[in-house]
Design brief:
The protein is of the alpha/beta class. The chain has 7 helices and 9 strands. The strands form 2 sheets. It has a 6-stranded parallel beta sheet. A 3-stranded antiparallel beta sheet has the order 4-7-6. Strand 6 and strand 7 form a beta hairpin. Helix 1 crosses helix 2 and helix 2 packs parallel to helix 3. The longest helix has 23 residues. The two termini are 13 Å apart. It binds 6-phosphogluconic acid. 6-phosphogluconic acid binds next to loops.
Length: 237
């Protein structure tokens, strides 16, 4: 489903509404709410909107990350740092409620393996992690999480978490894989800005294009997916 809003603030407000509903439903259903946060800059407005919602079941919420840069947690490039500053600190989220991808690890493969073990402990016996709400962004090249076009992680069909070398950025990333992302109960893409218009029209609007975008491949067989866009990003849909 595609939903278009006036501007990034309206996208964030709509996402916060969906977040609140998903949180309340999950806690009522299973006593906890497992949410995976996206990286990048788009989620900042959402985090700010959520930080004002003190009435949500925050103490029953477990925060995962869809991906992380291979940097220390206090690095300005760290997805964790952005979430800590805009969401965890304002809401006083306890450290035990966070599952952080250790981007600082000397051995990223070990960090990926440890994250996968922690995920499997959260979802014992599951074939894939049934994240209640997966929030994702999309890059201008159609990447999502750290699944970039033409990179090896796109071909991972067994692991839930892996490393991924991104030649265009000349850097390593840690990322959930397609099997893990697609297992989510509910997926929300947040896409804003004119720079995303072409790729949004291709990935979500059926505009012809040669190579399938990674974001296009994140479709939950047993869940829902909604794309929240502002008018600028939706202008070619
Ligand atoms: C990351 C993100 C990535 C992000 C897109 C969009 O670590 O960079 O996980 O997938 O969602 O690059 O980023 P913006 O929101 O900054 O446009």
């Amino acid at each position: 489903m595609i939903s278009i809003f006036e501007d990034p603030a309206a996208v964030a407000a709509a996402a916060a509404l969906r977040f609140a509903r998903a949180a309340r439903d999950a806690v009522a259903r299973q006593g906890r709410f497992v949410v995976a946060l996206p990286g990048g800059s788009t989620p900042r407005l959402l985090h700010r909107a959520l930080a004002e919602r003190t009435g949500l079941p925050w103490s029953a919420t477990l925060f995962l990350f869809g991906d992380e840069r291979c940097v220390p947690p206090d690095d300005e490039q760290s997805n964790y740092r952005m979430a800590r500053e805009t969401l965890f600190e304002p809401l006083r989220i306890a450290p035990g409620q966070l599952l952080r991808l250790h981007g600082e690890a000397a051995d990223p493969a070990q960090a990926a393996s440890e994250y996968e073990q922690a995920l499997r402990a959260l979802f014992p016996g599951a074939a894939a992690p049934r994240i209640d709400l997966l929030l994702l962004g999309m890059g201008e090249d159609g990447h999502t999480a750290s699944l970039f076009p033409g990179t090896a992680a796109l071909d991972e069909t067994r692991r839930w978490v892996t490393t991924n070398y991104v030649p265009r950025l000349a850097e390593w990333r840690l990322t959930l894989t397609l099997p893990a992302l697609c297992a989510a109960r509910e997926i929300l893409f947040l896409v804003t800005g004119a720079s995303k218009a072409r790729v949004a029209a291709e990935a979500f609007g059926g505009r012809p294009h040669e190579v399938q975008h990674p974001a296009e491949r994140v479709v939950p067989p047993d869940g829902t997916r909604e794309i929240l866009l502002d008018r600028a990003a939706a202008q070619l849909l």
